[in-house]
Amino acid sequence: MHATDIAGDEARHDAPRAPARLPRALLPVALLALAGCATPGQPESQRAVQQQLAAVSTSAGEGVAGALDADADAIANRLRALQAAPLTRQAAVEIALLRSPRVGAEFARLGLARADLIGASRLSNPTLGGARLTADGASLTTINFALGLGDLLLLPARKRLSAADFQRTQRVVAQQMLVLVADVETAWYAAVSARQVATLRDAVANAASLSAELAQRFFDAGNIIEVQLASERAAASQARIDAARAALDARRVRLALLRTLGVATEAAWKVPDTLPQPVATPSDAATLLALAARQRADLDAARREVALLEDALGVARRWRLLGELRIGGERERETPGQALSGPTLELALPIFDQGQAGIARAGAQLDASRAALRDLELAVGEDVRVALDQLDTARIAVAEFEKALVPAQQAVVAQQQLRVNFMLIGQFELLLAKRQEYDAYQGWFEALRDFWVAHTDLQRAIGGALPGSPTETKPALGPQELPGMPAEPDLYRNAPRAGAPDAGAAPEAAAVERKEPQP
Length: 519
What we know:
The chain has 14 helices and four strands. By secondary structure, it is of the alpha+beta class.
């Protein structure tokens, strides 16, 4: 039973579930998923794909053999267990491998290749024919039997070519499983980052609204002029718009993640609040290019296709003169009279067709395959270099935000707070600094997302886990851990009211620039 057969139980399985790191944590869950996709007669196909996944994974895991024996009930139980936990990376990958229609489509492709292999291993059925003719009381009975000898002669070549194509298809399926994992990881990073940004934008919108309310009270008390009030109102309106857009983007990205997982989009799952901290990664392009050339499954599949077509061209040339060739026997009996029997042979004479078309077709397919391989090799090299550059740039950005920009904005807020305490500026300048500080936090979170997306892209480019990457990572700072949300109550306490300012107003309120109200 295929894992996606459980899709009919959507109503029971759409509670919170939980993602994985590219091939590092891929293998155990992949094996469980592939076992769920099993159909009778295909265990050797799945085991071959699993071994190829293990070849590019940093950890094989001890439960590999047991995962092959998983059935539909075990898969359903596993899905229910995942629903009860937060949607981590490991859980998201596991869910996708168990539920994504892409898994079923890829293994259907493997099933087609296996069917071709079975067909190539069989001879064409022999033919049995007969006739009975009668005239003037006499009759003639004929029975004939024939077997295609050409099929028998070409059987070893057909089996060899089909087996090679089956091996190539296994590599293609393995590559697509790795691509699915990378897509899930990318969607998960985007969903976490979008949720962080939405949380920040919502906090800034609340602070801006309170700032606008405070400005109204100052204006009513005659402490600020109308242009300052309008400026605060405009800032609050823009902050609310930004918060609404961030909430929409968070929902859109979340739905995209669920779509990648292959589950119902109305499922009320929540991703964590934090992304992992950056990890050390290799930066030697030559090493990564060599690794990609060695372990990219699609490259190996393309090379296998070239070898397969070279073999096919050789077969076409070797047997170019072999047309239809049938051997058999025939028995003929005429009444009254004796029965006659003997062997038969049918041979197509290569007078007009000497296999020129087949040779030309095989040669053209080989040329196209070689060109496709070369193009793929160039694309892999470009993917590795671009992903490495993006990863290095994202690492620089994360470090700049963490070590320079965010601390600088925090220092600005601290200095502005001191100036407010000494009545040198008003609350509005402090609130502006707070909003700028949260803009820096947002940039930090987005840079961290970009790092992990580039990290995933690099793993996708080399076809496996980056060498030396740790299996466990610590979470980075989340929105709820940021020091001092903008909407701090003490900034608004004892603000002046219309009519007469409070006697107990905060000292900094008196420092706001005073303007005589207009008559």
